[in-house]
Amino acid sequence: MKRWLTTLLIAAPLMAQTTSSPVTFDRIVNALKEPQNWLTYWGDYSAIHYRDLKQINTTNAKDLRVEWIFQTGVKGAFETVPLVVDGIMYFTAAEGNAYAIDARTGRQLWQYQYKLGDKKLCCGTVNRGFAMLEGRLFMATGDAHLVALDARNGKLLWDTEMADYRKGYGATLAPLIVKDKVVAGVSGGEFGIRGFVDAYDANTGKSAWRFYTIPGKEDPGGDSWLAESWRRGGGATWLTGSYDPEQNTLFWGVGNPGPDLQGDTRKGDNLYTASVIALDGDTGKLKWHYQFTPHDTHDWDACETLMLLDLNWRGSKRKVLVQANRNGFFYMIDRTTGEFLMAKPFARQTWAKQIDDKGRPVLKGTAEPTAEGNPVCPGLAGAANWMAPSYNPELGTFFFPVREQCDVYYSSPAVFVEGKPYWGSVFRGQTEEKEWGLLKAIDPTTVQTKWDFRYAKAPWGGTLATSGGLVFSSDEDGYLMAFDARNGKNLWKINTGNRLVTSPITYMVEGKQYVTMPSGAALLTFALP
Amino acid sequence: MRIIIVAAAALVYASAVRAETSQIELGKAVYRSNCAFCHGLTALGGRGPNLASGEPRSEETIKKVVRNGVPGSTMPAFDGIDPDELNSLVAFLKSLSGSASAEQIAGDPSKGHQVYTKSGCTGCHQIGGAGSTYGPDLSRVGGGRPVAYLRESIVNPSADIPEEFQGVTVVTKEGKRVTGVRVNEDTFSVQLRLPSQLYRSFVKQEVKEVIDEKKSLMPAYKDMSKDDLENLLAYLHTLRGQNEKGTAKQAEAVR
Predict the structure, then answer these.
(1) What phi and psi, each to the nearest 5 degrees, are found at residue A16?
(2) How near does any CA of chain B get to the CA of A42, in Å?
(3) Interface mutation target, options B25, B28, B32, B182, chain A, most CBs of A under 10 Å
(4) Which of A54, A259, B90, B128 is spaced 20 to 30 A from A27 at the CA atom?
(5) The complex's ipTM?
(6) pLDDT digits (tens, 9 = 90+) for A183-242
(7) Of these residues, A296, A299, A301, A475, which one is catalytic?
């Protein structure tokens, strides 16, 4: 009898998993309460990249081994973060490809391909993944469209053009669901675009609202641009934002102003570039903004993960937003009011003396790009970038990859031609110094390092934290690694054979925990024996 | 009426000149941020060859070299370069042509070959497949490096050490020291090429320290006589790679 009862108890959650119920907005809001799934790009709306799964833990992580490998055969950087919903994994790859596979075996269920033809795209065909709502999957495309697929068979349901790719627009991000809408942004910050965040009706693909990240001449903030420079001011929105359902506020990171390395023609602060914008979830109206790098001339987009945490700050609990910014500073901002709370450097930086009490950088005055080249830290790719940081709420620790790399910044007059690169320079010049990287564990209220682990090269791979006391991370040499979250002890590693350019996820199917990481053209999944 | 036509023609001409000038200016910017790192800010050469002297090359050849790189050398392929930028770059490089005189080489290549042999260069270097793989292959070094750079490399090799010939010393936990060329180093391991031309791999767990050598692994030939140095440089300058039959062109040049 007892045995029978146990079986029944085990069977109950199994049934729940195999009977796939629709992914509702409510389920995404409560994504952390179903740790077996991965329902949205950052794992949940607060973007903590954390799962309460402990089957794989500090004692057995050393035994992790490859469970299955899915080969896409698709060339190009594999930057997707798969979604996992009740045993099925949905993910995208470069060149318009998308797949549904059995998350337990890696066997394909369907494949979809969005035809890009030989269109000349600003930002390539790289893709970072799906958003899902009800039975629909949403994917942005290299030519700046947004498409909806039927999750049952990968059939196209609707296809909406967000912007004209011939004008330098593209899209690489995973969209984000807010209630009944799909929110997405665009790439093309190096091509003289005028960036925006868009929302579309999930059922029909019809436009619901648009927020331009570059205000028009007469709009508030319009005076932060010299003359007509706002028209091609950049401000791309190329990475998924985060969302606070309680306040119905959407947080989105905005990219660099254009021309990137030449600021003379666009004197002023250049709002809302290199900023976080807080938008109303229903209307897209601006609630507040904070600009990390006013009048940026180093390509320091602020698109990096905007993590929403509730932290003790100077004696009281505050709802905050934290970001390790490309410019080398770690920021804490009150997410209700936009009030600047703190910024401290987490990597070598040579451009600012400090960030003052109001949140404005005090410049050293020696970091402007020049015709002859000026070495500045961090480099163009930033001290942080799109790869996910993670947060362990039990430990209060923020884990993130740090890029220690500087560049020589060149500047030259920029000529605007629609749809053409608008850099105000060309490529970056690397310094002679050898780059390196770190996996850093910090207290987000003080930015004090708890521990760090040195990588041979500056990483492009992100992290994942679990209640198993682990933090997974990935480096430029292709290592996927597991660390003890408390002390940084390396417990496990595997050379996956290709540089890692996205972040690992974890999920559970029928009582077994898995860890998945894209590498090269392959999706690798690990589990215990 | 005629005056108007002339004036219009002058305007067209002026704007054409302006367009050309701005193309060269853009090309200069493209050059500075992509090429100056190796070829020098004024294109007179650095680690890479002097681009302001030497035989003029056709636009197509220059474009091909930029797009595809030079296999077997450290010249990378700039395959993603925007066609307009490439055109501007070519215009800029063309504008330099002849602005610097060709490098004068006083020495005798065949005597230089003897200096090469007697100085023990083959112990570390290779030419046309003969010699050691420990140091850089010199089969086409005359095409790839300016004479001034070669001179410096012989007299003071530590002045510029290419990344792929960075010397490292691995100190094991037992205190053993092994020095070689770093072939690869990642977060968990390091692979060296030893003077014996064999590879040696270390897992960092077994290693106490990996030291980046500040000095080149090549000895400095500071005391080489002036004649020997000039002759050796003349010989190295002739090394331009092998022809199709596999006979080194430099051999012909030496002959």
Answers:
(1) -60, -35
(2) 26
(3) B32
(4) A54
(5) 0.87
(6) 999 999 999 999 999 999 999 999 999 999 999 999 999 999 999 999 999 999 999 999
(7) A299
